[in-house]
């Protein structure tokens, strides 16, 4: 006898598209240098990996986790998942390498970044000329810039 699977579809409104990666455990793995989508939704434990769809029914992200204390859910944008899957597929096609041994590279500058609004970056010392140049070449509606939060030191 098999257990019946429950399917639920929850409505939610995206509050932010540039949310820093959530911190789940003090000494555990926490993602960094990528943005998540944040929404107020009723997702619960066990929802991780579920698709997030837009009003046209297109998958745009995967449920990555939630905070029950604030009813906030965090979604990993789908383009990051697609990139990883393409790297795995390309290695398999080219070399016949088993997927569990494929390395998925992540660029790193040995530092972590945070997204700060333009008002905050001006308080941190951003010159007016630099802000104007960034606004000129950025997509419409850009709200800020990345700033260095911490430098990662690797001891070998």
Describe this entry's structure for a reader.
The chain has 156 residues and is α+β, with helices and mostly antiparallel strands. It has two domains: 8-106, Trypsin-like serine proteases (Thrombin, subunit H, Beta Barrel); 108-156, no CATH class. The protein is built from three helices and seven strands. The strands form two sheets. Strands 1-2-5-4-3 form a five-stranded antiparallel beta sheet. Strands 6-7 form a two-stranded antiparallel sheet. β4 (59-67) and β5 (72-77) form a beta hairpin. The longest helix has 18 residues, at 78-95. The chain is globular, with a radius of gyration of 19 Å. The N and C termini lie far apart (54 Å). The model has no long low-confidence stretch (mean pLDDT 76). InterPro entries: Peptidase_S1_PA, Peptidase_S1_PA_chymotrypsin. This is Serine protease. Pfam families: Trypsin_2. It comes from Triticum turgidum subsp. durum.
| CATH class categorisation of the largest domain | Mainly Beta
Number of domains: 2
| Strand order in the largest sheet | 1-2-5-4-3
CATH architecture label of the largest domain: Beta Barrel
Strand content: 25-35%
Low-confidence runs (pLDDT<50, min 5 residues)?
none
Radius of gyration: 19 Å
Distance between the termini: 54 Å
Helix-strand sequence = EEEEEHEHHE
Report the sheet with the most strands, covering strand number, pairing sense and barrel closure: 5 strands, antiparallel
Q: Which bin fits the share of residues in helices?
A: 10-25%
Count of runs of 4 or more consecutive helical residues: 3
What's the average pLDDT? 76
Number of strands: 7
Structural class: alpha+beta
- Stated plainly, the CATH topology of the largest domain is called Thrombin, subunit H
């Amino acid at each position: 006898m098999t257990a019946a699977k429950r399917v639920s579809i929850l409505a939610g409104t995206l509050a932010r598209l540039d949310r820093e990666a959530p911190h789940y455990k003090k000494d555990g793995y926490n993602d960094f240098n990528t943005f998540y989508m944040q929404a107020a939704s009723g997702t619960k434990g066990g929802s991780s990996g579920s698709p997030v769809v837009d009003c046209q029914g297109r998958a745009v992200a995967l449920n990555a986790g939630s905070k029950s204390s604030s009813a906030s859910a965090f979604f990993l944008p789908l383009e990051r998942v697609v990139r990883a899957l393409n790297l795995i597929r390309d290695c398999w096609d080219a070399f016949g390498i088993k997927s569990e041994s494929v390395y998925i590279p992540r660029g790193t500058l040995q530092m972590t970044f945070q997204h700060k609004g333009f008002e905050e970056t001006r308080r941190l010392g951003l010159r007016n000329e630099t802000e104007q140049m960034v606004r000129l070449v950025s997509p419409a509606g850009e709200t800020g810039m990345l700033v260095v939060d911490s430098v990662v030191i690797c001891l070998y």
